[in-house]
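Thread: quick sanity check before group meeting

JM: Hey all, I'm pulling together slides for Thursday and realized we never actually wrote out the predicted structure for the chain we discussed last week. Dropping the sequence here so it's in one place. If anyone has concerns about the input, flag it before I start.
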Amino acid sequence: MRIIHEGNLYQLTTMPRVFPVNCYLVEEKTGLTLIDAAMPFSAKGIIQAVNSIGKPITSIVLTHAHEDHVGALDSIKAAFPDALVYVSERDSRIMEGDRSLEVHEEQTPIKGGIPKKLRTRADVQLKEGDRVGSLLAVESPGHTPGSMSFLDTRSNALIAGDAFQTRAGLAVAGDKRLLFPFPAIGTWSKATALKSARKLAILKPSLLATGHGEMIKNPVEPMEEVIRRFENSM
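JM (edit): ok, ran it. Output follows.
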């Protein structure tokens, strides 16, 4: 597992050259918050990274409930049983395997890998504006109906899950990049994803960290550029 350290943020990448799947550790004064849980076989690398930092995982927050973001969740929860698990109220249903849609949502199928054997459930269901340590929860639906991003209020770093991708070039969820089309293929609503991308750009993040690909410093102009590109393609 590759580890890149940027301020209070650690990017942990499984299969960085082949099919990069990122999760993140956010360092707080007395513990760590894990954002997403990557693949089932990522657990060992995540635990090794935690041990090297020397603080326990006290919180686990999920950007959304696709399999490549909750894969090691059961193993991490077993290793850190006191850690609270957070997910959006909406995506807590996807954790249960429920693909049903609400009447106000775009009536297109929920896509992507939905966990079938996940045992862990959320302790806390997040809403817009909730705080987990230094992280501010920002609703950013589109990739899934309940996708969330997390803004570190100390540094203004934005961990956006699959609301954006940076692998094969920066793109909004749903804007297919031929060299890495998988986030787009797994996106539920392109129109909703575009609205969320605009919302995230308004936050003026200092750093953009996504579920797939490298972190980008000073990302606002590139974010605005790919938003315009996606708008023009709709």
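AS: nice. The mean pLDDT is 97. The chain has one domain: 2-233.
JM: adding both to the slides.
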